[in-house]
Amino acid sequence: MELYKGKPVADRIREEIKEKVGEYEKKGIRPQLAILRVGQNPEDIAYEQRVLKNCQTCGILAQVRECPENTTTEEFLVILQECNSNREIHGILIFRPLPRHMDSEKISLLVAPEKDSDCMNPQNLNKLFLGDTEGILPCTPEAVRELLLHYTGSLVGRNVVIVNRSLVLGKPLAMLLLEENATVTICHSKTKDLAEITKKADVVVTGVGRAGYFGKEYFGEHSVVMDVGINEKEGGICGDVDMDAVSGQIKGISPVPGGVGAVTSMLLLRNVLRGIKEA
Description:
By secondary structure, the protein is α/β, with parallel strands linked by helices. The chain has two domains: 27-115, 3-Layer(aba) Sandwich (Rossmann fold); 139-261, NAD(P)-binding Rossmann-like Domain (Rossmann fold), CATH 3.40.50. Helix content is 41%, strand content 17%. The strands form three sheets. It has a six-stranded parallel beta sheet with strand order 1-11-8-7-5-6. The protein has a three-stranded parallel beta sheet with strand order 3-2-4, sandwiched between helices. The protein has a two-stranded antiparallel sheet with strand order 9-10. Helix 2 (42-58) links the parallel strand 2 and strand 3 (61-67). The protein is globular. The termini are far apart.
């Protein structure tokens, strides 16, 4: 069983970003990301620190706008609009989920599409669903595609089963893989005989958020598995796949941690560069 680690792909994207940042700096442009965080959620802060570290490594400026937990939608929209209007800011990251008292839909619609580094504005998803893969893409689905292309070479004619139907993962990933001429099936909690479907697939993408849910009965010897699940366990995190159970049985799998997530963080920064409009 081969481990499809994210580091080689993330390293390649990082070097591409650094090269591009150098080109922009010669033109007097310094790429910058604005991070908008509401409250003190420890997971948000931990992720924020990783993003800031990656920005520093790639030469991208970053500023954090921390808002109190009781910030109203209207107050947040003022801050967001300031970021939209600031020509020196090229990307915006808003930590989600937002507090329940805030209007997430109204906020997502106000994010400038060209600065929407985390693909929050539905306008960017609309472009993807219309077949436009050159703009800002959702980071996690794009990370899955990048990993698959790196380790398998081509997805043409491959049968791919995605066990997730959300707008965050399953649906946009299906569109991306269709553009690669894969044959895509989306499964979910109501799917009958799930194991019989996944076992026949060339590639299985898991995203159910249940630790160790997928055992060896879901896969065959030819299976390539992209584990996108992130679940807490004692001492760290794990994916949706029972690694011990499938070890030695399947062809390859992306580990958790160290798989899709490592690539996702780099793609966020690549989206920042896509927000740059040269004069």
